[in-house]
Amino acid sequence: QKSSETIFSKLSKAVVGKSTVDEEVLDELEEILITSDVGVDTTIKIINRIEDRVARDKYVNTQELDKLLREEIINLLAENNTQDLLDFELPADKKPYVIMVVGVNGVGKTTTIGKLASLFKNAGKSVVLGAADTFRAAAVDQLILWGKRVDVPVVSHGMNTDPASVAFDAVKQAVDQKVDVVIIDTAGRLHTKVNLMNELGKIKRVMQKFIPDAPHEILLVLDGSTGQNAFIQAKEFSKVTEISALAVTKLDGTAKGGVVIGISDQMKIPVKYIGVGEKMTDLQLFNRKEFVDSLFKKK
Amino acid sequence: MFDNLSVKLDRAFKTLKGTGKITEINVASTAKEIRRALIDADVNYKVAKEVTDKIRNEALGRDVLISVSPGQLLVKITQEELTKLMGGTKVDINLTGDPAVVLISGLQGSGKTTFTGKLGAALKKQGRQVLLVACDIYRPAAIDQLKVLGEQIGVEVYAEPENKNALEIANNAIAYAKKSGKKTVIVDTAGRLAVDEQMMNEIEELKTALKPSETLFVVDSMTGQDAVNTAKTFDERLNFDGVVLTKLDGDTRGGAAISIRHVVNKPIKFISTGEKMENLDVFHPDRMAQRILGMGDVISLVERA
Ligand SMILES: Nc1nc2c(ncn2[C@@H]2O[C@H](COP(=O)(O)OP(=O)(O)OP(=O)(O)O)[C@@H](O)[C@H]2O)c(=O)[nH]1
Ligand SMILES: Nc1nc2c(ncn2[C@@H]2O[C@H](COP(=O)(O)OP(=O)(O)OP(=O)(O)O)[C@@H](O)[C@H]2O)c(=O)[nH]1
Ligand SMILES: [Mg+2]
Ligand SMILES: [Mg+2]
Questions:
Q1: CB-based contacts of A36: which residues, under 8 Å, 6+ apart?
Q2: Contact B144 A107 (CB under 8 A)
Q3: Is the ipTM of this complex over 0.85?
């Protein structure tokens, strides 16, 4: 069983022997949220809302706290107009549908691409991958192996080649062969590295020579065990490219994923996928309710 | 997010300014802001609480000199406490044994393979005969990755691409090192989650069999609140000797460093500051303390006060 303490189990401990939601319970709640990486600002927001509810309803017993907290978290996720995706259908007028995957080093971009390719394929779509991480040692080999595993073609020019021209060729091949989806892998880059961040713009522009509105989706991958820096990553990547969706990975590690709550609250970018393991099948469409349920799961 | 911090501390320090003495009342709000700064830097909640309590008590016990404001004093105390927490002195890597074995462990994507290459390069520079061992049998192209790095730094890599038993590979590698006169063996392993029993068993077995003189835990400096639990579990299973903090070339405050040091009480031995093979540095507790607090901002603040 790959899970550690959930918000539910921490909450249960916090309210032992207490009948009403008082200052002390709220303090415990603050600790629970912060230790789940929700972030200070969002934590304060949630606490304030619960305080308001407690003030309004006068007497809120601790059994209701669980329900209350769930509601508030779902509300937060809803406010950011996250539309839960139901399947892998693609807009008909965008063929090929071009996805560019970006993020800092080691978050799980290449793995997420392998899993995505598999899911699209299972949904009956044809897929081509572009190995535009030409920098990290054996990054191209890694994507090619994923391509073999999932049985989709990978366009590559080898290591230390121009990433933009790999992306161009991948898109071109997709157009020529009437492929449904193109997914472009990019090298991990810290958002503080200006040159590398500008390179993303170049990759994008080159693809646009071929398909003017490409990429249709820029997916930012965040590591679910990252702390407050995840917020900065989301902010900084948004500054240089139009991030349209988030994938949060490694959520099999801990039952926290609180970073998802904080980011949904602070950024208006929907979480689209979550990674829950290293296998091909370990990628899920993000579903608000299921996500919140998993946070509160009884062990 | 961090921009708020300086504004908040500024306000908190204003309430201290002018009063020549640190009192229970005026220290409380500043302590709270410092705690928040620590949490924003990913210092574990409990550790942050402990630290700020300590800082408050320490501050109350001291008289404010005429030349320093209470705010300055608090900042100084905070920095001192954080530095102390992270261990004052540098601890070297232990390379005894023939061959000396270094075992690398950590979560997925933390920077183990890259660090394996970097350490290999650094030890080679010291004139050691080094062998890198590819024991990650899971991640696609993990072996190729280490081989590419080995080639870059001119260090041999031992691998058995067809073998699906990490322990066997490692044992064979040691035998090979003895035969070929390599005095130092660095074993790269697959990334694993602390909650993954099977994978934790694998690395525990590796440790037991190889008897490394140095077992290192590689951790991404951007890790959040859960860093302490992960470090604790790895330490319980491996009783590791030191920590490697990676990806410090970015803008993370790296508060996980404090929490890990505090919770498992093992020294941070290396910091990784980039993707290139030469981006490896020794750890300076005082600089790390400043970074976690965002002392750049804080010091300039106090100077303005
Ligand atoms: N447990 C777990 N591991 C994951 C998940 N996603 C990726 N990983 C692992 O994380 C490590 C890094 O994944 P990659 O896909 O190589 O990450 P990346 O972002 O492409 O890395 P760079 O290209 O080097 O920046 C690998 O060991 C993956 O197997 C996940 O959802 N859960
Ligand atoms: N910016 C930066 N990137 C780093 C640093 N150390 C490693 N990386 C990058 O982080 C990513 C992951 O590094 P790896 O060495 O593959 O990590 P790992 O722990 O071996 O990953 P797994 O084997 O999949 O668990 C790669 O893109 C590296 O280039 C560092 O100090 N700074
Ligand atoms: Mg990659
Ligand atoms: Mg590795």
A1: A7, A256, A257, A258, A261, A295, B225
A2: no
A3: yes
